[in-house]
Amino acid sequence: MFSSWMVSSLLAASVVLAGPPSGQAGPEPDVFQMRHLKVIALDPGHGGDNRGCLGVNGAYEKELTLQIAERVRRILLEETSASVMLTREADVPLGLRERARMANSWNADVFLSLHLNADPYGSGKGVETWFLSVDSADEEAQKLVAAEEGAYGENEDDDHHEHTVVQNVLNDTQIRLAQARSESLAAAVVDGMAASTAAPLRGVRQAPFGVLKEAKMPAIVVEAGFFSHEHEGTLLLDPEYQETVARGIVKGLQAYDVQLARVPGPSALRTVLR
Question: For the chain, which domains are there?
Answer without folding.
Answer: 34-273 (3.40.630.40)
